[in-house]
Amino acid sequence: MKKIASAIFSFFLFIPAVFAGVSVTPYGAASTVSGSCFLLETENSKFLIDCGLFMPEESGSAGGETAKLKNLRIQDELIEAEALFLTHAHLDHSGRIPLLIHRGFKGKIYSTQATKELALTLFKERNGFDLIERKWFWSKSQREKARYANNGKVVAHWTDDCKKNIKSAEYSDTEISLKDLEARESVEFLLCKNCCKEETEKIEKQFATVKYDRDIKISDNFTAKLINAGHVPGSACFVFTIDNKKILFSGDLGSGYSRFNGEFDIPEKVDLVFMEATYAECRHKVGMEQYELFRNDLKKALAAGKTVWIPALSFNRTQKVLYELKLMQDDGSLSKKIPVYSISPCANAITALYQKEAAKKKEESEKSAISSYWFLDGVYKNGSILPKSVRLQTMGNYASNIILISSSGDMDKGRSEHLVPTMSIRKDVFIMIVNYVSPESNAGLLLQNKKTRSGTKSFAKIKKYDVFSDHADFEMLQKWLSNQDKNNVKIYIIHSNDKNAQNMIKLLKSKGCKGVNGAKAGESVKLGL
User: Fold this and answer.
1) What is the pLDDT of residues 130-157, one digit of tens each?
2) Which residues of 241-276 are buried (b: 16+ CB within 10 A; e: fewer)?
3) Mean pLDDT, to the nearest integer, of 220-229?
4) Lowest-pLDDT choice from 31-40, 260-269, 329-338, 432-441
5) Where does the Metallo-beta-lactamase domain start and stop, copy by copy (predicted)?
6) Taking the CB of the first residue and of the last residue of the chain, which one, N or C, has fewer CB atoms within 10 A?
7) Is-contact 110 208, C-beta < 8 A?
8) Boundary of a domain, candidates 453, 468, 483
9) Which pLDDT value is given to residue 281?
10) How far apart are CA 22 and CA 38, in angstroms?
11) Do residues 395 and 443 both lie within one domain?
12) Which parts of 205-316 fold into alpha helices (H)?
C-alpha cells in the first residue's frame, strides 16, 4: 500500500511539473487590436503565433508607445523561436515577418496555401520591408527632381541587382529606417518592387503549407492543427496539443455573412483559449438580408446619375465588393454597361490571386496535399469573382456615372486619401463605407457629418454597410465556443482594446463562462493554471 500511495503521490507531483513549463506570452494584440504576436513556450522550445504590425490609429493604446516604436521592436526570444504559426495574411498578423527574418529568425512558417500566397503578394507589394533599417541607395537625379517638384517620390533600393542600373547613386551612410530617411532627406521614398520581389522569394523558402484538420507533428508530445476560421481565404485557428493538454488560438474569426468563406468550423474542447473580440462587444444586428440594402442603395444612386465611390480595404473587402457587383450583373440587377474601376495596385494584385483561384474547380483546389480550398462551392461554380465591366487600373476622370473602388477603407491612406478633397465635395457622389472605420479617420468624420482632417466640408452623401464585416459578433463567438466546458475552460480575450475586452468578459460571464480574463502584453499565461 505504501508503494501505491507513493506512486500516486509522485504522479500528482509530476503533472504540475510537466505543465508548469508551458506558457503563452502576448507581445501584441493584448489590450489593443493589432500587432498580433504570441510566444508559446514549452520546457525545451519556443514557438510564435503571428508576427503582425501595430496600426498607427492605435498609437499609445498599449504601453504608451507609438506604433512605429512597437513595430521596430523584435525581442531576442521571438527570433529564437523554432517555428511561426501564421493564422492569416492580414498585415496586423503577418506584417513584421520580413523584419523578424531580417533579424535572424530561421524557423518554418506554417500556414495554409492561401495564406502563404496572399502574404507573399502583400510583401511583394511593398509591405513590411520599410521597417528594416538598411543602408539604402537611390538615384541622385531622381531625388533632385523630387525635391524640385515638391511632390515626387524617390525609389529606395537595397539589393545588389539594382546597383548596376543606377548611374548616379546616393547612399545612406548608416543603417536607417525608411521613415527616418524620409525625414532626413525631405523627400518621400517608395520601396523598389524588384528589391521587394527578390527578398520575398527568400522568405517564401521558409513557408511550410498544410491543409485544414491535419495534425502537424512538431515533437513526440507536441502537435498543431489548423481549423477554418472563416475570416478571409486561408484563415485558420490553431489547436496546439501538448502532453494531452490543448491550447486554442482563434486568430480572427469570420462574421458568417461572407459569400466567400461562409462560417468558421467550431473547434474541439480545449483547456485554454485565446479568443479575438475585435468588434464583439455587441451584436452586429445584420444578416444576409443587408446585402439587399447595399444593392438597392447602389441602384438608386446609379439611377440618379451619381458616381458611386466605395473606399475599401485592399485585402478581402475590395474583392467582396467586386464579387457582389458580379452577382448583381449575373441576376440582371446591375447593368454590365456601368464601368467598375478598382484603382489600388495592392488591391488589384490580391484580386488577381482571388480570380486565379476562383477559375479552378474546387476538386482541383483540394487535391493538393498542401492546399486547402479558398472559397465556398458557389464561387468555384461561378468561375470568377469579377463583374464583366471591371477595369483593374487607374483613371484620370472620375466625373462620369461609374462605380469607383479604392483603398484604404478609412480614406486616410493610399488612393482613397488622395480622392477625399475632390470626391467628398461633390453632390453627385454617393460614398458607400463597407468596413469598420476609426471615428477620427476621414471616413469616420464624414459619417459624423464633420469636416475631413484637412478641414474639407463634404457635400457627398455617405452611408455605412456592416454586412461586409470580416469579424464575428458576440452571437457568433458564442457559437464558436459551443464545444467548450464553461466551468473549466480558461479564456483570454485578445485583439481588442481594454473597453471592448471588459465588455466581452462581462457578456461571456453572463452566459456562464467562469474563467474569462483580458490578456495583457508581457504577462505570461501558464497552461494548467
Assistant:
1) 999 999 999 998 988 887 766 678 999 9
2) bbeebbbbbbbbbbbbbbbbbbbbbebeebbbbbbb
3) 95
4) 432-441
5) 34-306
6) N
7) yes
8) 468
9) 59
10) 13
11) yes
12) 290-303
Q: Which of 468, 485, 509 is the last residue of a domain?
A: 468
Three-state DSSP class for residue 341? strand
Same domain, residue pair 326 and 424: yes
**What CATH number corresponds to the domain at position 297?**
3.40.50.10890
Strand spans (E) along 126-221? 137-139, 153-156, 169-171, 188-191, 207-209, 215-219
Residue 225 has pLDDT above 50, yes or no: yes
Q: In the chain, what percentage of residues exceed pLDDT 70? A: 91
Q: Look over the chain and give the mean of its residue pLDDT values, rounded to a whole number.
A: 90
Confidence at residue 365, expressed as pLDDT on a 0 to 100 scale:
61
Residues 6+ apart with CB under 8 A from 373: 362, 365, 366
Q: Which of 93, 128, 132 is nearest to 109 (CA)?
A: 93
- 47: CATH: 3.60.15.10
Cα 82 from Cα 106, distance rounded (Å): 7
Locate 521 and state its grid cell.
502584453
Res 41 pLDDT > 70 = yes
Asked whether residue 481 falls in the same domain as residue 432, the answer is: no
The three cell numbers of residue 58 are 492605435
Same domain? For 107 and 178 the reply is no
pLDDT of 62: 43
Q: Identify whether 438 is part of a domain.
A: yes
Look at the chain and report how many structural domains it folds into.
3
In terms of residue numbers, what domain contains 169? Answer: 129-200
Q: What is the pLDDT of residues 102-127, one digit of tens each?
A: 999 999 999 999 999 999 999 999 99
* Cα–Cα dist 329/316, whole Å: 20
Residues 424 and 458 in one domain: yes
Length of the chain: 529
Say if residue 180's pLDDT is above 80: yes
Kindly state whether residue 218 falls inside one of the protein's structural domains: no
Given the C-alpha cell 523558402, which residue does it identify? 205
Q: Where are the alpha helices (DSSP H) in 343-441?
A: 345-358, 362-367, 377-382, 414-423
Torsion sign across C-alpha atoms 490, 493, 498, 500: negative
Per-residue pLDDT tens for 302-344? 999 999 999 999 999 999 999 999 999 999 999 999 999 999 9
Whether 341 and 325 map to the same domain: the answer is yes
Mark whether 296 and 416 lie in a shared domain: yes
DSSP-assigned letter for residue 393: S
Mean pLDDT to the nearest integer, 452-475: 92
Same domain, 47 and 173: no
Confirm whether 257 is domain-assigned: yes
Q: Is residue 302 a contact partner of residue 264, using CB atoms and an 8 Å limit? A: no
Q: Closest by alpha carbon to 464, among 235, 297, 289?
A: 297
pTM, rounded to two decimals: 0.92
Give the contacts of 396 (CB within 8 A, at least 6 positions apart).
Answer: none
Q: Is residue 12 part of a domain?
A: no
Written as one string, the DSSP assignment of 419-474 is HHHHHTT-TTEEEEE-S---TTSHHHHHHTT---TT-PPP-SEEEE-GGG--S--H
